[in-house]
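Two proteins were folded this term; both appear here.
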Amino acid sequence: MQSNKSRDTKPELALRSAVHALGLRYRVAGRPLAQLRRTADLVFPRAKVAVFLDGCFWHGCPEHHTVATANGKFWADKVAGNRARDRDTDGRLAQAGWVSVRIWEHEDPHVAAERVAQVVRARGAPAR
């Protein structure tokens, strides 16, 4: 699994391009909270919005997640742990006044970008 990229994946690049085309500027692969060792795919510091692009396999997508045939228990525990960490991250960010936006990798990037833009603009972040 070492060859799996943690950033700059095709779905992430498509989302970033679509968000950028809407006039929004962001930080890539940043920590919304310095003391929290969790990285968001897109960070809007002024608006306090963190965007996470979740992979269907790694985060247990209800539509596309497949059960691994080899080492099934290990992978089931791994995905369950990822989902628990996602919920914990969202809760910690909410406590600090941030909004988490979760997007599945299979979602249309333009539709997802519109959703991100709505949240960011609702929180008063200026467009450039």
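Next, the second protein.
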Amino acid sequence: MNIVFNLPPALLIGLLVSTLLPILTGLVTTRVTSSAVKAIVLAGLAALTGLLTELGASISQGVAYDLGVGLVLMLTAFLVAVAMHFGLWKPTTVSAKAQSVLVVSPGEPRHSAEF
């Protein structure tokens, strides 16, 4: 029996992007954006991450696009992003600070984004 340990670069890149999705969601939403809208934005970004990760892998390997793998990567990206949001980014206030960087709701003062 042979054991192989293989970590394709596309999966590592997808995992890295998934950990940063909550910050990206914070960059494109405001403090007054409802949590439901933020969840939808995060789900959309996770869908893009998972599906594009598989697309990149299939192009680089010259094989057919596997939609099943893309959907599993999409779900994995969403779960990792939610876990990172509640486990790391929210307790350290990084998510809240990210919302002061790019998009500010009308009438809301722009705060400094000191990390």
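The mean pLDDT is 87. The radius of gyration is 17 Å. These notes refer to the second protein only.
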